Amino acid sequence: MRTKLLATACTILALAAAHTASAKTLVYCSEGSPENFYPAINTTGTTFDASSRQLYNRLVEFKRGTTEVQPGLAESWDVSSDGLTFTFHLRHGVKWHTTKTFTPSRDFNADDVIFSFERQWKADNPYYKITSDNHSYFSDMGFPALLKAITKTDDYTVKFELKEPAAPFLADLAMDFASIISKEYADKMMQAGTPEKVDQEPVGTGPFMLVQYQKDAVIRYRAHPQYWAGKAAIDDLVFAITPDVSVRLQKLKANECQVIPYPAPADLDSIRKDSNLILLDQPGLNIGYLAFQTQKKPFDDKRVRQAINMAINKKAIIDAVYLSTGIIAKNPIPPVMWSYNDAVQDYPYDPEKAKKLLAEAGLPNGFETDLWAMPVQRPYNPNARRIAELMQADLAKVGIKAEIKSFEWGEYRKRAQNGEHQMVQLGWTGDNGDPDNFLHVLLGCDAVETNGGNVAKWCYKPFNDLIMEAVRVTDMQKRTELYKQAQVIFKEEAPWVTIAHSIQYVATRANVVDFKLSPFGHHEFYGVDLK
Amino acid sequence: MLRFVLTRASLIIPTFVGVTLLAFLLVHLIPGDPIETMAGERGIDPARHAQLRAEYGFDKPLMVQYGIYVGHVLRGDLGISAITHQRVIDEFRQLFPATIELSLCAVIFAIVVGIPAGMLAAVRRNSILDHGIMAMSLTGYSMPIFWWGLLLILLFSSVLGWTPVSGRVDVAYFIEPTTGFLLIDSLLSDQEGAFRSAVSHLILPTIVLGTVPLAVIARMTRSAMLEVLGEDYIRTARAKGLSPIRVVALHALRNALIPVITVIGLSVGTLFTGAILTETIFSWPGVGHWVVDGISRRDYPVVQGAVLMLGTVVMLVNLAVDLLYGLVNPRIRHTS
After folding, report:
1. DSSP secondary-structure letter at A319?
2. CA proximity to A109, closest of A93, A120, A122
3. Angle, alpha carbons B38-A211-B301 (nearest 5°)
4. Dihedral pair phi/psi, residue B299, rounded to 5°
């Protein structure tokens, strides 16, 4: 015990000595604690912020603040003409972190890539079950069915063979679950009988190294001095875990932290007025919508769906519920996504025209329906119940009597996927910045059956043909064209009322330079500086 | 005395069984399938859902699950968190010292301020002081902790800048969690200003958490004192010519303390519940916040483990109070 205490004291002194007084420290008041430091078994932004975004790299990366894919640990890649083989040429000289439990003996190479994916793919891999075997995103993005083989031709060339062409594949590899972890470290920890350390005391190639995690309190990072893209401007990064939203703002104002996520909508004005603070905003990669059960009457009639689109006052909903944290949605994909079709015209708010359309459809006196509202707050919908109430009032004006229903969250989503509703509120947050991730997952024909994300149960061949072709084609321009056409058809057929895209906000001190909001809601600190 | 101790101690076993049963059943009464809740919008493959259910043992009958659970508990295994995949007992051990530190400070604050306040109110009965103290105690008791905490932060941290906003210590201090009690660890770390920082971070959370117990202790002390001060032996003591301070502090208080000790013991339970809100506001990394997170995420093992551990602590504290009671009041230990 005494020697341990002495060793600890010496380590602290040594670290302190190695650190000059002019070290730049940035404190980020995060909203919650990470589950662990292995991104592949988690799905929350909180955990990704603490792990994959600071500690790891991927073969390809999203350019800061965008959904554009750029080289990461792979300098370049070739795609075979049939779209089935992706060959990645890996970067040379990428150094792993040196921590108190590990000193790397070699640079990053193809073995690490193969291990990182096989850990999530092959049940017989010794690390498959370590910490957890629930590799959610690897499954969700369809990788078990998609991947045929991952092989290396030499230490710096890795080949991914797919079973069928998949244009979004590259964007998938920029996602957090595809973070590259160290095979050497994993082998060493397995030999030492402590494999779980790989996920609790992580080693990556990323811009920051984990120094210490005090559970639920503080996470400390230090800049990786040999980061391949150049050492971060910030020397010490600290996550001060602050769950309460009002307290986060007070800490920001007191300069106890320099960046805070998710400020409360009611505080946005006061942040804007404060000259010591900057408010950054960006529409999130999400959509909140009201879906019609198009396999149930009267929602199988396009006129009824269009009428309801015209009966609902979306602006009033944004003003009352989203306040300034949402923008009206006209398309099923958000404006920040490539191929967003701005030429599409939204339905006007026109209750008179709505009544006329309903009469044409044989429902001059309206009809009765249910209207489901989520019991929880979601990133794309701050208060589903309130929105349901506003919609109920709007629909009553055109003779439609809507009964508001709600279930416990897990139940809600399951029943919606079973198609038990007539009208249901739901939403989606994008994973990889590819339109396929919205249009196929939420509106494709193969997503109609139970468990699929198509709660409108809408299978429309012209739309489906377009999006299925867009998955097979790799030429960006052609894909953009196809998706633009799909959005036009969507608007005409109206299987949903697209409600809003929520805006995400981050507040920083005025001396924080170049913090960029990610459309994925991530908080990255490489490239950020303090004046 | 020994018989008294043994009788009281033997009650622990049925109480403990009751706590495990309650911890287990209550958690399973929370609506919603934990696996579905974890899946969110993404949904989950039915095969995968069935697999996870089997893994967590949710597919077995409730009483069988309970039996397995008790078996594990008796071996010291509280299970693995469904969210972090760490052992529940390890997480509890990491977080509990923070809660103890805060609760202890809150209790000491409540006693040090509450008992004298109650005594003063009793001695100056029906005066402005008495009414003032009782009014403040009623306010303190009725105040929502969340609001009270935010109010104090706004005043003392934001406007006046006298105290820090939240956390246990300034993030600039890198303190190794040797004991888990930051007051001790900061002294051990030998870093300049670390101890002061730890103390200043304790001030507001202690006041907030200690407010309700303070109010209860003050009122209890006052009414117990009033009862005692009306007794014959007090009149005798005064007639004997003893100084008022000796009468009140030595004779009256000692007897008045008996119900107050009981109330202090009961307060421990309140402190843990109050700690949940206080810990959230002040970003205090203790078990209160951990339990709340576990409930909203349907992390059954964490909620069960926390209810069990906290229930056990409350049980042991009340046992200690009972024994102390017997020590302080000879009539109790001789009649049992």
Report:
1. I
2. A93
3. 30
4. -85, 80
Q: Which amino acid is at A354?
A: A
Verify cis geometry, omega within 30 degrees of 0, for the bond prior to A298.
yes
Q: How far is B53 from chain A (nearest CA, A)?
A: 12
Contact B285 A410 (CB under 8 A): no
Is the CB of A242 less than 8 angstroms away from the CB of B46? no
In angstroms, rounded to a whole number, what is the distance separating the alpha carbons of residues A66 and A60? Answer: 13
- Which H or E element spans position B77? none
Q: Tell me whether A255 touches chain B (CB under 8 Å).
A: no
Q: What is the pLDDT of residues A282-312, one digit of tens each?
A: 889 999 999 999 999 999 999 999 999 999 9
> Are residues A244 and B283, on separate chains, in Cβ contact within 8 Å?
yes
Q: Which residue of A has its CA nearest to B40?
A: A410
CB atoms within 10 A of CB A371: 24
Q: Within 13 Å and on the Cβ side, how many CA atoms surround A15?
A: 18
Instruction: List A401's β-bridge partners, or say none.
Output: A368
Q: What is the pLDDT of residues B143-170, one digit of tens each?
A: 898 899 999 999 999 899 999 999 999 9
Segments of A262-367 assigned E as strands: 277-283, 286-292, 326-328
Measured distance CA(A95)–CA(A106) in Å, rounded: 8
Spatial distance between the Cα atoms of A157 and A85, rounded to a whole number of angstroms: 13
The single-letter code of the amino acid at A44 is T
Residues of B in Cβ contact (< 8 Å) with A35: 83-85
Tell me: the pLDDT tens digits for A144-201?
999 999 999 999 999 999 999 999 999 999 999 999 999 999 999 999 999 999 999 9
Integer CA distances (angstroms), A220 to A147, A476, B266, in order: 37, 41, 39
Q: Do B42 and A136 touch (CB under 8 A)?
A: yes
List the single residue in B with minimal CA-CA distance to A42. B83
User: Is B117 in contact with B109 (CB distance < 8 Å)?
Assistant: no
Is residue B134 classed as helix, strand or coil in its secondary structure?
helix
Rounded Cα distance, A270 and A249, in Å: 10
